[in-house]
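Comment thread on ticket #2218

A.B. wrote:
> Attaching the input chain for the structure job we discussed in standup.
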Amino acid sequence: MTGPPITVSGLVAAHRCPLRYWHDLARPPAESVRYAVAKQVAAHLGDDLDPALVWEELTVVLPGIDPGARALAEAWTAACRGVRPFPFVLRDRAVRSERLGLAGQVDGVAPDLSSCAVVRATEAPAWGVTSADRVRAAAYALCLEEERGKPLEAVLLLYVPSGTVRRYLPQPRDRRAVLRAREVARRVEEGRLPPRPPDAPCGRCPYAQACAGGARSGRSILC
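C.D. wrote:
> Ran it. Output below, let me know if you need it in another format.
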């Protein structure tokens, strides 16, 4: 693939909506407080999960963090108290696919590359894995499979707010979704912004206000 790689987070944004990806390119999003909390809780899974330690580390990771976030950290710590530690260290690990032009950082990878872990700062769905997380899991799997030389055994998704772990093996439909999102992202980068999909999750999008008032196509945003 020519050109810089598409990040996994960017790929997921393009999967959700091409306008979301376009906005992210113009204003790269900063790490949210929710994600920072989820990461610190995940780093201490096990019987010794201590909310005071989690909060102390958060004040180092995000200097000036709102003290009100401490209640969130305590609630999520309580939710994850019964979650067993992963069989490998949760440490950001760079992954890449030269073949597909993808790159990212996954939250944890097994030493033999047989599985990886993804930390989420959202509630677990009632069952299964959300569409966006299926694409996320498939993208990480494709990167690691290129490095490993064979398919992954599983992607483990930790939904920290609900203390839920879902074991997922990306399916062919998820890999197809990765290819579609990659194509959308490339078109956006070339200035060919596709229309906003009818099922775009505008209600949960941080750019909803910017797109309000009838941004029904890529052209209407760019003009």
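A.B. wrote:
> Thanks. Noting for the ticket: The chain has a mean pLDDT of 90.
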